[in-house]
Amino acid sequence: MKNLIALLDKTSALTLELLDVLDEEKASLSRQDIATLETIIEKKLAIAQALQGVDRQRDDALVKLGAAPGLAGMEALLASHPEPQLQASWQALCEVSRRCKQDNLLAGTMIRKNQMVTDQALQVLRQGSIETAQTYSANGLTPQRSQSSPLGKA
Hints:
The structure is a single chain. The chain is mostly helical. The protein has a single domain, classed as FlgN-like (Methane Monooxygenase Hydroxylase, Chain G, domain 1). It is 75% helix and 3% strand. It contains 4 helices and 2 strands; from the N terminus they run H-H-H-H-E-E. The chain has helices spanning 2-31, 34-64, 70-80, 84-127, and strands at residues 131-132, 146-147. A two-stranded antiparallel ribbon has the order 1-2. The longest helix is centred in the last third of the chain and has 44 residues, at 84-127. The N and C termini lie far apart (70 Å).
């Protein structure tokens, strides 16, 4: 059981590292600092690989304790062993994982927004206008595609 607790704590520590890297990523995206983003991607990859290794070790530890691997086995073990340290380590991991997921979603949103702005700028440079999709037209119909006025006519 102590080995499993140590693995949960190690996973939490790695996930906290990932949370720090995601904070760096958000700051770099705000500054549009491409050079820093490249190093951040490398850091995220290294942490993800380390997390995969610890996850395999945790699954092995669950099997040795007579539980199934993965989340189902962990939840079954938690239900059958009300050990406070195991519960605390699991809750800490769940909390930091939730925060990590939220920060990753925010970074993804920032990336999509930056990509959309870049795509629009390229579209203006190539075509002289931006294609827009309207929710509905003045007469209440939903148009397939609408095109704004060319840049030269604005």
